[in-house]
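FAQ: What does a ligand-bound record look like?

Like this one, built around UFG:
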Amino acid sequence: MSKKGKILVTGGTGYIGSHTTVELIEQGYEVVIIDNLSNSDAFIVDRIEQITDIRPKFYEFDLLDTDKLDNFFKENADLVGIIHFAAAKAVGESVEIPLHYYRNNLVPMINILEAMKKYKIENFVFSSSCTVYGQPDELPVTENAPVKPAESPYGYTKQVNENILNDTIKSGANIKGIALRYFNPIGAHHSGLIGELPKGVPNNLLPFITQTAYGLRKQLSVFGEDYNTPDGSCIRDYIHVVDLAKAHIVAIERLIDGKNKNSYEMFNIGTGNGFSVFEVIKSFEQSTGEKLNYKVVARRAGDIEQIWADTTIGNNELGWKATKTLDEMTLSAWKWEQNYRKDLN
Ligand code: UFG
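The answer part, i.e. the structure of the complex:
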C-alpha cells in the first residue's frame, strides 16, 4: 500500500486513462486499473511500467459484469478514490448504435456508484466533455453556461452521467464527485511510449494528421472552410493530454483532502485558447518539419463551429493550469506515432 493510497482508474489502458495512471503513480499513488480492452491494448500496462518502474495491477473485465465488479471491490475495499474514464467515445458511431452507447456508458456509472455506496468509497472523478455545452451562445464558455440538447447519443450519455452523479450525491450518499469537462485532448507522453491509439480509421483530427504524415492515409480532409471564423475552419480548445492527466490528480486530491466547496462540482479543462484546423496543421508542419497532404472538403455533419474554454473557475479552484503549447502537443503526437509504428515492424 502506497503512502498516498489506492486509486481505481477505469479505462486505465485507454488514451487519457493511461496518461493519468502514469501521473498518479509518479505522485506516489497505488493504481489499479479495470479495462475490457474494447478500445485499447494490454501492452499499455507494460509501457506504464516502463515509464514509472511500477506496474499497476490490471483487471481485465467489463464494468457491466456486476459479479466481477463486486469481487473487485471486495478485494479493493481500501480504495481512496475512483477516476472513471471507461466509455465508448465515437460521436458518429453513437448515432449508428445508440443502444450500445446507452448501455455501455450509463450502466457502468450506476454499477460503480452502487459499489461506492456499498463499500463506502467517497471520492469520484468523472470524465465529462465540453460536448455538454453544444454550440455555446457566448465564448469562451464557462461552467455556468446552459447544457444544450445533446447532438449525439454519446454527448447525451455525458450529460446523463453528470446528472446520475449529481443526483446520487444529492440523495445523501456519502459520495463527493467532480466532473471534468474536457475540451480536445491531443498529444502524447514525452517518452513516446504511450499515446492515442485509435482502432481503424481515426475520427479525430490529430491521429488523422499523424497517420497521414506517416503515410498510412493518403490525405487529410479538412471539414469545411466556410465557417464564420477568421480562416473559415472550425475552432477548438486543444489541450495536451499530460496537462489533462494532471488535472485529474488535482481533482481527486481536492476531494481526498476535503477541499471541495460542494459535494458535486464541475470544471472546464482546457487551455482557454482556440485554434482553427488550419492552425493545427500549421503547428504540426512547423513543429515536425513534415509536409502534410490535405484538402478542404464539405463540412462534417454534427460539427459545431467554435468552442473554447473559460478556465478561470478551474484555474482558481483547482490551482491547476495547462502549460503546454500547441507545438508541444503536435510534436509529441508525431513522436508517439513514429515510435509506435517503428515498434510494430
Ligand atoms: N477535423 C477535420 N478532419 C478530420 C477530423 C477532424 O477537419 O479528419 C476537424 C473537425 O471538423 C473539427 C476539428 O477537426 O473541427 C476537431 O475534430 P475532432 O474530431 O478531433 O474533435 P471534435 O471537436 O469533433 O470532438 C471532440 C471529442 C468528442 C467530443 C467533442 C465535443 O473527440 O469526444 O470534442 O465537442 F464530444
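Follow-up question: can I read anything off the structure? Yes, for example: Residues 98-119 form the longest helix (22 residues).
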